[in-house]
Design a protein that fits this description.
The protein contains 9 helices and 32 strands. The chain is mainly beta. It binds MU-OXO-diiron and calcium ion (3 copies). This is PhoX family protein.
Length: about 700
Amino acid sequence: MRKLLPLIGSHPGGRSALTCRYRCGDACFHEVPNTSGNEYVGDVIARALSRRSVLRAGAVVGAAAAAGATGIGQAPGASAAPAAPVKKGWEKSRYRQAARGLRFTPVAPNTTDAVTVPEGYAQNIVIRWGDPILRGAPAFDPARQTAKAQAGQFGYNNDFLTLLPLPGERDRQVLFANHEYTDENLMFPGYDPDNPTREQVEIAWAAHGLSVVVVEEDRRTGKLTAVPRHHLNRRFTATTEFRLTGPAAGSDLLKTSADPTGTKVLGTLNNCAGGTTPWGTALSGEENFNQYFAGAASVADADTRAKLARYGMTGGASERKWERFDDRFDLTKEPNEANRFGWVVEVDPYDPDSVPRKRTALGRFKHEAAQPRLTADGRPVVYMGDDERFDYFYKFVSSKRMMKGSSRAAREHNLTLLDEGTLYVAKLTGDSPADQVDGSGKLPNDGEFDGTGVWIPLATGDVSHVPGMTADEVYVHTRIAADKVGATKMDRPEDVEPSPRTGRVYVALTNNSQRGTAGKPGADEANPRSNNKHGQVLELAEHWDDPASDGFAWRLFLVCGDPQDPSTYFGGFPKDQVSPISCPDNLAFDSYGNLWISTDGNALGSHDGLFGVATTGERRGEVRQFLTVPAGAETCGPVIGDRRVLVAVQHPGEKDGATYDNPASTWPDGPGKVVRPSVVAVWRKDGRNIGV
Ligand code: FEO
Ligand code: CA
Ligand code: CA
Ligand code: CA
């Protein structure tokens, strides 16, 4: 029987204070960085002017197109203004329909300090924080950890995961993982947050970043395990050299005293979710990078201070005090260093000598994820969320076609696809009268939170579409560009995933405790609840099913929470037959077209989990919980294969008051062992496909 647990904690979305501090730099306790007047008034689009507003936003697109700026992105036969609402087109996709539901006994909400899976399923740990993956790396010894050891070992706080094929090596695949942040309290015995040592700081640098590690399946047992010392295994840390590429590379805004070229950056930070490209590379989003930079309040130039503030940099010393050990983290000394973070990075896991890239054409913000798909003529389109309350949803449309095959020429060409194209931001308009969207979550009279949207172009290559900003400024200060064009302020856009079956795009909007509070934007049809604790999942259909379209239809697929809460909505499915779900974060599809959702910060009192749900057919909206994670953890990086599910268990044991010496979780190795973020594989004991 489903049992609701008592609500816990005063932190947003059920998170612990430690998670807030170390993961996001206490973002929820700071002033919302988006203080732009954009859309505050009257909750704009949702209200009143729906039709006029669409036309006006369409005129922006049209003007840019007339100026020759947006040759791409026009659907066949598309006029500049988006077509009338295509609400009735939902079931007319040219893609095959998916009508499968998921058959497993849902896991009940719980607070067990374990990964709990449905009956008939088994699990194993694939790799843990500290497991050696490079040649010469020592076995993990947490009491005597060194930066040198960590640089050859799997990093801390695994988040995004993707599995890529490894032709020619039987039963093996390439796992790409990122490592969002470190929690020094849980990593080091006797950690003193006021006085970190140089060795502790350098261990943290080495524990951030990315990993590439080959994994191998044991066909007999079903287990998946890491292959240490494989020649493809790699670590990328906070000190690895990355190249800035695309239109803003070399810009004055990206130059520092250590890099007068504005093209070479040391390291990647706070990598959250990501994506997998059809040409076989991995993408990863740099998210809450602001928290690593100190001294914003003391920067002399007021304009620079304002730009730093729009990205959440307003304070003095940083939490981890890295500025004491490297001047580049001190904004009073290197005000441009922070401009070199907040990008989407691309890694070629098949070339162990490749230099990882930061793609400036995709804009700079708190990137959650970056999930590509192809247009009918083979150009990649990348959907991207900016995970902050009242920030925006974006897409990038490349001007270049992907080359098929794995020849050297194809691989080299495909590594330039994300450097040329147009960056857009989304503006959503509801179709119901404003007085029917009252912040309570009550459905409007037409029975759905839905409407249309336009993609507003920000820049194409070296051409800016934003009055008063150069293209370089648009790419480096993308949030400010999006403020100026009137993008829609969303409830924390997190992961995004196009359905391989229907072409519809799904966006997780985690929560927004400040929606509708004093001085903040109120509810609109896409963000329909004030003090939104549990989040929603938005479904988007591009006009003409064309990913490069300038317009789209949208509707809310899930309005999350306890199904007994009248403000929730489960795609129209009977609410007494679904699992409670709160704070959707990462998304993935299985090959049947079911959407899988992992949660971050369950505000219903249960541990976070992974859920599956059909998006079409009779079972559309039937949310079923597949697993739960240990105490303090969030569920990340789901990879849903036919016969195996992978999840990244991030920040296990991160609860208020917990330390290395006083842990709040004994996962995964039991009492007396340090708690370790780890990747978990789950499969069916009878060897059959997941969920069918
Ligand atoms: Fe790192 Fe938006 O979660
Ligand atoms: Ca409506
Ligand atoms: Ca996330
Ligand atoms: Ca995803």
